[in-house]
């Protein structure tokens, strides 16, 4: 471009260059990279040579070079070492005073520091400030135009000021995104530490031989990717152990995804497990990842695996065998790397022999079986568990919660059919009723369903109550609430405790006006 053109032609060409520059700055948030391209456009389209972008380092109060266009055949010496202090050289002057500087002949200017040995002393030089929303200087843009008339020089300086404004917007946006990202990463790391802490070994309470063996097993299985099958009654800590395995494994920084298989109706099954593409079926308004995809590089916890239908078992077997699947409505195959932990309180061997559970799936899952004993079989752990729970209650209620010795003795004589969950609920209920925070025997109300004492301990199955669909009594309402509490407010589990069908319990919850808790 000939700068000796008349002003009208020059402005037309600058406008064309401006179009290219604004498109360039629109494409990326990486401002040093887009600035490189902008400086190239300034050189090629406007003969504005040796363009340089410097940005303020707030901590050190100096301008650092972020981008430079060097037309010389040799590389610049130490360009990374070069910086400008406030008031130092022409660039430092722009930082100090916040106004543009236009020089007719660079070599004649006293302020010129010549730190880069890049510029032509005979030619003009322009340096303009980059300012943020509050008019504070955050950097400088400079370039060297060819010899030209005064009106052309003024037009080029105005043009550079416009470009500096655009770059300043980009720089601020990039800072905002960077700060937000850093905040999110800090928050994520904090939450990860908290979750890890919650599932560290110190939160698994128990010192009986069986529990010590379990802790040792957790430590060993955590190291590898082997599939684990957790067995044990409801409330014995299967989910807690699944978490502990994941958060103590090399996958700890990746997702832990829980899937309650009992709560999943067949019509939602496939979409829940494998996700769907937008428009795959009515209601699929956007693409959604399934649980297996979400768990990529992490762990999937398949709770209540014994409650699954034949359709579920078939789909699960396929993904366990092939480790890949397609989203509903999708054409591409998605491969995942997922560690499997499954849990059940059913006797799976019996389910297999009765034809309710696929044998091939059973063998796929039963690689590392772990059995969590019911609380009544490790009642010596109760004092330690009770202390652990009262500590948590003290924190939640911000006061000292404790147990009297007689309460502890009484609790040691009970069979705890709902296991540790029931113990937690019993102590929470009693602590709420306690004015002083001390839990005395009168405040303890054991589950109404199974208020038998430990000696002789009845089996759980022997305590199942029979229900019909006749109008329920007041007592029954209490029993349903109690069963829901003991099963963590999972309807399907509570129904099993009461020997009801899911439909029967849903009916009762509705007509008894029971408000479901979200845990
Ligand atoms: N060894 C333990 N130490 C401390 N807390 C425990 C322990 N075992 C269980 N708990 C607590 O008891 C409650 C029930 O445990 P969890 O949900 O893991 O049982 P679960 O066997 O998965 O039950 P379900 O089969 O009904 O899903 C949780 O709040 C858990 O933190």
TrEMBL record:
Assembly, per entry: Interacts with sigma-54.
Gene3D superfamilies for the chain: 1.10.8.60, 3.30.450.40, Homeodomain-like, P-loop containing nucleotide triphosphate hydrolases
The record's gene field reads nifA
UniProt keywords, alphabetically:
Activator, ATP-binding, DNA-binding, Nitrogen fixation, Nucleotide-binding, Transcription, Transcription regulation, Two-component regulatory system
Superkingdom, taxonomy of origin: Bacteria
What's this protein's function? Answer: Required for activation of most nif operons, which are directly involved in nitrogen fixation.
Provide the protein name. Answer: Nif-specific regulatory protein
Which Pfam families does the record cross-reference, listed alphabetically?
Answer: AAA_lid_14, GAF_2, HTH_8, Sigma54_activat
Q: Sigma-54 factor interaction domain spans which residues?
A: 204-432
Write out the transmembrane intervals.
none
